[in-house]
Amino acid sequence: MTDGRAWAASWVSALDALELDVAWVESALRAAHLPPADEVARLAAWVPPADLGPLPADLVVRATALLDRQTHAARATVEAITRSRRHVAALDALRPHRGDVAVYVDTQA
Predict the structure, then answer these.
(1) Is residue 99 packed enough to be buried (19+ CB in 10 Å), middle (13-18) or exposed (0-12)?
(2) Residues 31, 51: Cα–Cα separation, whole Å
(3) Terminus-to-terminus CA distance in the chain, angstroms?
(4) Is 15:59 a contact under the CB 8 Å cutoff?
(5) Contact (Cβ atoms closer than 8 angstroms) between residue 66 and residue 18
(6) Which of 27, 33, 95, 102 has a 20 to 30 Å separation from 79 between CA atoms?
(7) From CA 61, how far away is CA 68, in angstroms rounded?
(8) What digits encode the pLDDT tens for the residues 11-53?
(9) What are the backbone angles phi and psi of residue 101, rounded to the nearest 5°?
(10) What is the rounded (10 degree) CA torsion for 90, 91, 97, 99?
(11) How many CB atoms within 10 Å of residue 11?
């Protein structure tokens, strides 16, 4: 394989891997379930390849579309986390008071 084709193939491989990760996050968001901690750790530990060089011109459209999907998935993840925290706060507010907290009941009504 010539250097030019190897360079392009390396970029295609990197974009393929990123696309699989984005698809996995999108799927998890659609299913509204928490991913396993080891999978989250793997995604969070991702380090971009350092030896790819500049993006080949014929992959710019694909890379831009992938970046858009990543941005959308990141926003959706933040929104899901925010909703989850609000739900947890609402549930905490509905829990019975602990025994060490004074509770007064008006029996004169």
Answers:
(1) exposed
(2) 36
(3) 88
(4) yes
(5) yes
(6) 95
(7) 11
(8) 999 999 999 999 988 998 888 776 777 877 777 777 878 888 8
(9) -105, 130
(10) -140
(11) 20
CA distance 71 to 104: 50
pTM score:
0.71
For residue 101, pLDDT beyond 80: no
Length of the chain: 109
Give the DSSP letter string of 26-47. HHHHHHT-PPPHHHHHHHHT--
| Angle, alpha carbons 55-13-5 (nearest 5°) | 60
And the tokens for 59? 């992959």
User: Hey, what amino acid is at 66?
Assistant: L
